[in-house]
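Handout for the seminar on molecular recognition.
Each group receives one record of this type.
Step one: identify the two inputs.
Step two: read the structure output and locate the region that could contact phosphoenolpyruvate.
Step three: write two sentences on what you found, then compare them with the reference statements printed after the record.
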Amino acid sequence: MSFTLHGLGVSGGIAIGTAHLISHATLEVAHLTIAPRMVDKEVARFEAALEQVKCELAAMKESTEHAPAEFGAFLDLHRMILDDPELCEVPKALIRERRCNAEWALVQQMEQLVAQFDEFEDPYLRERGQDVRQVVERVIKELAGHVGRTPLRSAKGVKEENLIVVAHDLSPADVIAFKEHHFASFITDVGGATSHTAILGRSMAIPAVLGLHNARQLIRDKETLIIDGTRGVVIVNPDPRVLEEYQLRKSQLELERTKLKRLKSAKTASIDGVEVHLQANIELPSDVPAALEGGAEGVGLFRTEFLFLDRGELPSEDEQFEAYRKVVKGMDGRPVVIRTFDLGADKDLNPEGTLGDRVKTNPALGMRAIRVSLAEPKMFRTQLRAILRASKYGKVKLLIPMLAHAHEIDATLAAVEQAKSSLRGEKVGFDPSIEIGGMIEIPAAALGIGLFLRRLDFLSIGTNDLIQYTLAIDRSDEQVAHLYDPLHPAVLMLIAHTLHSGEKAGIPVSVCGELAGDPNLTRLLLGMGLRTFSMHPAQILEVKSRVLKSDVSEIAPQVRKMLRLEEPAKIREQLERLNGAAV
Ligand code: PEP
Ligand code: MG
């Protein structure tokens, strides 16, 4: 049966392939023997997990108002499976008889049941074995008590390039692991448009749709999927006519992308000769070839925290130095802005949380980025020394995330001085005049910009967080994704104020948030005075093509008028005019 799901298109393009369902809960569980006195406790743990899953299903049922009708039926079926004594009673008997852990008992029983389903001739009944697995996965996840890394399994007989990963949730560390694979696309039930999971999707230049709510429940392994990452649409089991139409659109898009490649070595300047600099955002040294391929003039943002996110431990100075040097050398004399770790919020080193108690109930407002670095001086010093050492090999700039207070800037500058003097003492080379910049991503920083301009060499506006903190919207939460509005007048005001203040003070200001890579916003940003844009390598040529077709002297007065508007709808209307204008 063919059906369509709608979510947030976070990385454009079209993918056509085979569904590859992955889950947080691995069904390969350990077999543990437990002490006789612990048996009752183990049974109680199993019962508590069952209860929790029942609550989860009930909560999902309540929120199914807008879901396809099939979803309610799935939930009822899963609840029935959960209530079946074969699944809720037999494992308890196994725990008692064999003195084994709950996970193992449950998986043993699941295997038996799935084997029985496999015997059915009727394909519908045979497929219900999948439902048993899904229910068991839920219980196992509950028993594990935390959200772990999502294990990637291989799919027999299908090339990775044809696989579309379907998951309930993917952490940034999960997606980083995808960089070593070649999946066609990924889709998830949760996640916001500027969550780091979405950002990684864009950086891999594969279509991705997040916030689909029930995709992991409704889609079956090996079903054919069409992913339209631009419109946020997923078509499951498309009929042949639809498939053909999308195949055509996919080849058209590929053709357009090939045509854009011709712009790679063209100088980036507007019709009236205003020079613009386009740089790349990267996460790993292995992103450097894509940055060069896209014609990046440098790296405007190297998000260093992603280097080690899936390793679960802090890297040594030498390891960091090697990674930074690789990027610097790879960029061959072009500037490289290395940002110190932005750990915390949705980016932690491992699922159990290396940051431990530091990350509390509201992580986006808690210990994150420079706050963590200043609270962990040893970690900070190690990173600063590694970056300074790499500065000997090219044009490195140091960028500090999430600054809000003057004392944070002062403490950071003091830490850099200390790192420099320790290297000097050891006679280790570095660039003594390395520039130090700050991210403007907290409204307080944009409003109190004077503090920054007096202390730092350059600024970079992180619009992803600036929007999150201005509008009080968690960027990872798909439930409030509709409120994440880059065109909110308050957001535009803060960006314009930062750009204007930087220009007056003679301090360069760039934008490295996702806005910089959105071609629909290129003219708006040009008109606001932005001259340095940093974005995912895959977006550079499209933005360049917009710059080449724009006349800044015509755009600037129109944008000044737009900035006086208070209604986002009016701003949107004017933006359409600005983009449609044949300048
Ligand atoms: C931003 O906040 O806009 C930014 C570039 O940093 P990150 O997305 O890594 O938080
Ligand atoms: Mg940020």
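Reference statements: Residues 39-62 form the longest helix (24 residues). The chain has a mean pLDDT of 90.
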